[in-house]
Design a protein that fits this description.
The chain is of the alpha+beta class and 253 residues long. The protein has eleven helices and six strands.
């Protein structure tokens, strides 16, 4: 039976819709590696991708200079997923087990160098940066490669606190202690919340440092919670801090 005029029109539209759907770009899940850099945050999905290919793609998307000097590491196949991390934490996750150095331009991660076991010390090179004067505040090799958290806080307390919270979870002890030092000088419920989370750190010595920061802020109940810590030294330090706090309280009129 012949189709009506309306039926033929519907059929043509259906065929057009089918071809349009078939021509759509493959979803991001099919892109390997998939790298997204938005508002200073990295999200990455990679399945059996060489380290060199992954770092090259990250460099393109983030404009961070990445120098891979370890040729054996370059061909190592990686499968990983990171979501909405700062560049420094994302690179720490990717480069776990490798030797590497971060260089910062003020508070921004500007360059990552993956070191060769027998190679020369790294030198700052921002040849892929946009035209303009070279940064004057990038840290040279051998200095403490930590972000300028105080500058971050001046620009935006919310973003600064977010960076400090992430830094306390870093695998780099220098970054963690730098963040803790800055947090010790800050006040507010957001500071207390971040320090409370750091009491779950895997390093007992760092947990004791966090306890000392909380004690300085008068957070007695949080210090008291560490009396049940699994580590004997942490429990003893908590007891000492509570005793000191009690003595100081008795001296007050």
């Amino acid at each position: 039976m012949a189709l009506s005029k309306t039926g033929r029109r519907i059929l043509r539209l259906s065929v057009m819709f089918f071809f349009l759907m078939s021509a759509k770009v493959q979803p991001s899940e099919k892109i390997n590696p998939f790298v997204s850099f938005s508002e200073g945050r990295l999200s990455i999905r990679a399945v059996d991708v060489s380290l060199s290919d992954l770092l090259r793609e990250i460099g393109k998307k983030s404009d961070i200079v990445v120098e891979l000097r370890d040729q054996e590491a370059a061909e190592k196949q990686l499968t990983l997923e990171v979501n909405d991390l700062s560049p420094s934490l994302a690179f720490e996750e990717i480069l776990r087990g490798f030797s590497f150095v971060f260089f910062y331009d003020r508070a921004r991660l500007a360059q990552v160098v993956v070191l060769s076991p027998d190679g020369p010390p790294p030198q700052l090179s921002l040849s892929r940066s946009a035209p303009g004067p070279q940064p004057s505040t990038s840290k040279p090799p051998g200095s403490n490669p930590t972000p300028d958290f105080e500058q971050m806080l001046k620009r935006s307390r919310v973003e600064g606190m977010r960076a400090l919270s992430e830094a306390l979870a870093s695998s780099n002890p220098d970054v963690k202690r730098s963040a803790l030092e800055v947090l010790t000088e800050q006040e507010g419920l957001d500071v207390t919340r971040i320090l409370t989370g750091a009491l779950r750190d895997s390093d007992p010595s760092f947990r004791m440092e966090v306890l000392e920061a909380l004690a300085d802020k008068g957070e007695t109940q949080l210090v008291r919670s560490a009396l049940s810590d699994q580590n004997t030294e942490v429990r003893e330090r908590a007891a000492e801090l509570l005793e000191i706090e009690g003595e100081e309280g008795e001296k007050k009129p």
